[in-house]
Amino acid sequence: MERETTPTAVATSTLDMCRPAIDRGDDYFVHWGLTHFLLDGHHKLEAAATAGRPVRLLSLLTVG
Question: Three-class SS of residue 23?
């Protein structure tokens, strides 16, 4: 953290798009839930949070 580089953490992610069961015309909405599961970088995240520094997140998300 003392160096001026931004550490990178690696995560796998899921994207869940939930739609309501009933379509009520103009009030139709979709909830997007993006969840990250950290694979590597636990200590980097803790150190960055303690130091108040940013962290880069490399997220692996499948489109299909």
Answer: coil
Closest CA relative to residue 54, chosen from 43, 44, 42, 39: 44
DSSP-derived 3-state class of residue 32: strand
pTM: 0.69
Determine the 3-state secondary structure of 30 from DSSP.
coil
Q: What is the pLDDT along the chain (64 residues), one digit of tens a residue?
A: 667 788 999 999 999 888 776 777 776 778 888 999 999 999 999 999 998 999 999 999 987 6
d(CA 19, CA 39): 29
